[in-house]
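S1.2 Input.
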Amino acid sequence: MPYRHALLFLLATLTTIDASAWSRMADAHIHSINGIPCFSITKKEEARNGLPFLGALMVSDMSVQPVKEVWGFSLPPDMALAIRASTCIRYGSMPTGATGIRVEKLIPGHFYSVFLNGSPKDPSDPTYGYQGKFCVVATEAGAQKVIPIDSDMQEWRTKICPTHPSLP
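S1.3 Output.
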């Protein structure tokens, strides 16, 4: 009988948990234009949820302790920005009406994280943000190259910027 009581208690507890506790973090899409990172949502997320509205964005340098915010902005609630998978929120470019911190130069060999604070129009969707990670490496020509780190790659967990990223 104690097993039955424990099971009933567990079921009762689970059914009373607030639905907001079931929140979800989705993947951000990171690519680059001329060595400058661009941030957006993935095509999969756009197909799943439509266009989310972005309220803030933050890029952090994970290679230093404590972790350092190197660029970010927030938008007033009435000016949230609808983003598509094809959108490029370019590192350092502040949207009209946004307030934020001054952009810092990305350092080759450092590991970075980006968080897009936004959610789909559908209030029943538990997605509350989009997260991505990337590294910046120097090229032989003296430029920089952005290496997106997917969530299924070893580097996502180790937070070490590779010269040649591992396969998922």
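S1.4 Remarks. Helices lie at 2-15, 43-49, 154-158.
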